[in-house]
Amino acid sequence: MSARIGVSRKTIVKLETGDASIGLAVLLRALDVLGLADGVDQLAAQDEIGRRLDDIQRTRAPRRQGSRARSR
User: In b/e form, how buried is each residue of 6-32, taking b as 16+ CB within 10 angstroms?
Assistant: First the structure.
């Protein structure tokens, strides 16, 4: 499985034990290899809170850089 996902066996062990340091991309590739990636699409389609947060983020004005920003 690690070869199909493109990660080390150690990373697979971390994934299996729920280690939070595993990236989302690794998790999604593992789900794809296991044939479970469609479930993620279904979850995302039902994510009302995520859509609201995304809408809020898109409607906010761009953040200005503070006076502490260095000019190079």
Answer: ebeeebbebbeeeeeebeeebeebbee
pLDDT at 29: 94
pLDDT (average), residues 56-63: 77
Task: Say whether pLDDT at 40 is over 80.
Answer: yes
Whether 70 shows a pLDDT value over 60: the answer reads no
Burial of 62 (0-12, 13-18, 19+ CB in 10 A): exposed
Q: Angle at CA 18, nearest 5°, toward 7 and 15?
A: 15
Token look-up 């990236």 returns: 23
Tokens of 49: 């809170």
Give every CB contact of residue 2 below 8 A, 6+ residues apart in sequence: 8, 9, 11, 12
